[in-house]
Prior knowledge:
- By secondary structure, the chain is mostly helical.
- The chain has helices at residues 2-8, 12-20, 38-43, 62-75, 88-110, 114-138, 142-166, 171-202, and strands at residues 27-28, 34-35.
- 66% of the residues lie in helices and 2% in strands.
- A hairpin with a 5-residue loop joins strand 1 and strand 2.
Amino acid sequence: MNEASAMIGVSPATLRRWSDAGKIKAFTTPGGHRRFSRAVVVAMLPSDRPQRPKLGLLGETPERMTRIYRRELEHAASWAPWIDAIDEEDRTPLRDHGQRMAGSLLTYFDATRASARASALATAADSAGTCGWIAGRMGLPIEATVEAFLQFRMPFIRELGAVARRRGLDTAETTILLLAATEAIDHLLTAAVRGHERAVRLEPDHPLPAALVR
Length: 214
């Protein structure tokens, strides 16, 4: 109640009267406490509010996303056996740049200034390009590189969808969030492909990883 009233800028008593009058939808917990979903409260804010929900306010952090990616890596070999063939010299920067991409994307979504958003997206794209360059230098075909990128894109999209469900975002807010994520990640995929192309031009005769030789 107090958090909701602070967001809207009215007293808890006023918010209670609005709820009693049906002006704002509430629900009651088993303990008898009145609660309001974040989506309902956000809908009460002025119409010139930012369209995209702030991930930081929704509880999403780079640390949480990093934990999710670490879990994904445990199952990666089931769809990409060549991952186990990557030596530590390449595995460490791939992992570090993957985490850097995730953190930069979260910064990109929550930045309020265009310059800050552009800087965060550029940082993420730089890491994506480096990952593509490492894959190309390893001799990984472009098809496998794109497949790997798409596989590691899904945890990010799934997590954003889960955040939307947990926080009760409405359909419009969820759609805006996921569309923005898809557009940004597509930009990173392009950067990864360009990085791969640069590596192939520099090392065109690099052998394929053994796991990809048929």
